[in-house]
Amino acid sequence: MRKLMVGLMMVVGLLAATPLAKPAMAQASLAAPGSLDPVGLITSGAVIPFLGEGLAGGGLSFLELYAPVRDTTVHMFLFDAACVRQGPSLAVELTTNDIALLRVDNITGGPTSGLITAGETDDGAFTLFPWDSGSGEVVAARTLWANSNGNFVRVIDPIALSSPSELLDSSNEGGWSPMRTAAAFFAPLETGGLHTTIYFVCPNTNIQRHLPTNGGALNPSNGFPIIRPELQTAGTATPLRIRIYDDEESLLRDVTSSCNCLTIKPVTTIDGVYASPVDAPGGTYTEVEGSTTNAVPAVCSATVIESLNVPNTANTGNACPGAPLGCIFGATPACTGQFQQTTPAIPGLGPFSFVAYRSITVPGFDVFGRAPGASRCQIQGDGGFSCSATLNR
User: Fold this and answer.
1) In 68-209, which ranges are E strands?
2) Were 241 and a residue from 142, 289, 365, 392 both cysteine, which residue would form a disulfide, CB within 3.0 to 4.6 Å?
3) H/E element holding 56?
4) pLDDT for 112-160, tens place per residue?
């Protein structure tokens, strides 16, 4: 990998003087849901990150919207960096071949940084519904993040629920094209003014909830494709597993971290090895996985016994053993009671999906874009059947 590092440094030095030829692009094939162009036309709905002064340390965010096919209304809800809804809803009326540009980090009562959920709405403007792609209601969107402190204008790609040519299966699973359970990125050695920062977008159930009941801004009950895997519970951080390698593919660190909706992490807050000239003089390659949470068993009283609603049958919602100890529900010896459940069991959840954006900055130079995404089973080297399961997207 050292040749790659040397080549990258040469490219950086020549960027200002040498135009780069555009590489040939492979034609995407029609495949499983979520596999098509993640930054093309958007159907159904979208989540759009934006960053302003509050979270990002200075800057303005402008939302670009396009209606290339027919008249389309873009209705939006604003969420702060913790996925808590704030401020008013916004509506932009676009005519055919229309464009719109609006600043979104200074909406009265709204957040300065966070996520936008976008779609159609009803007459009351209190609920989002999918755009009618069958009649040509499709949009394109992106955020322009201008920051005078950093002397940059960055393009933040949207998170589309589906694209016009994407197939939905029988359970209405379209998948968010960029949302995956893993991501990868390169970071040069942290030295002086050279810094790498990762921007994690880890939506929670305020954006969409599927189990045990539907809900959230992009409610599946209103026709939005179901996000797979399901999102983390609102107010709870999404766990991350992070493996860091040097430029000779040697594992340096295997650490845990987390994100909560919209989270900014300079790489040195993940681990100090990113700034180690001894361990990683040529920079690092990192794999991030949306991890899982451990199941927590029910807590049962050791003394309080409740009566059974049905003889010799465990009460609904109680996972505790029967009483007296050693009895077997539905068998012999029969249970005449059940120890009281004081705290219900919490199931293990995950893996969780997310999107990561990476910036590399040095005075006078700025690189920003979405980090490559993958399913965590693929990034672990398992390209077999398990990678096709919705849990592993």
Assistant:
1) 72-79, 85-94, 98-103, 114-121, 128-129, 140-147, 152-156, 159-162, 182-187, 195-202
2) 289
3) helix 53-56
4) 999 999 999 877 778 999 998 778 898 999 999 998 777 889 999 998 8
pTM exceeding the 0.90 threshold for the entire prediction: no
**What is residue 134's predicted lDDT score, i.e. its pLDDT?**
79
- Rounded Cα distance between 127 and 220, Å, is 12
Please state, in angstroms and rounded to a whole number, the distance separating the CA atoms of residues 209 and 201: 16
SS3 for 229?
coil
Contact 43, 130 (CB under 8 A): yes
Q: Quote the tokens at residue 319.
A: 């996972």
Residue 227 per-residue DSSP state: P
Q: Which residue has the tokens 């050279």?
A: 194
Percent of the residues in the chain that have a pLDDT greater than 90, as a whole number: 57
Dist. CA 40–CA 228, nearest whole Å = 20
Asked if 292 and 351 touch (Cβ cutoff 8 Å), the reply is: yes
CA 63/CA 49 separation, integer angstroms = 10
Q: How far apart are CA 45 and CA 388, in angstroms?
A: 24
Measured between alpha carbons, how far is 372 from 159 in angstroms, rounded to an integer?
14
Q: Are 53 and 88 in contact (CB under 8 A)?
A: no
Domain range annotation of the chain: 39-166, 177-291+347-393, 299-343
CA-wise closest residue to 98 among 36, 47, 140, 50: 140
- In the prediction, which pLDDT does 387 show? 64
Q: Which amino acid appears at position 347 of this protein?
A: P
Question: H-type helices in the chain, by residue range?
Answer: 2-14, 53-56, 267-270, 376-379
Rounded Cα distance between 250 and 266, Å, is: 22
Listed residue (62, 224, 205) closest to 127, CA to CA:
224
Check whether domain 39-166 has CATH 2.60.290, yes or no? yes
Q: Tokens 């989002």 sit at which residue? A: 128
- Residues 310, 322: contact at Cβ < 8 Å? no
Task: Name the nearest CA neighbour of 56 among 189, 154, 182, 160.
Answer: 154
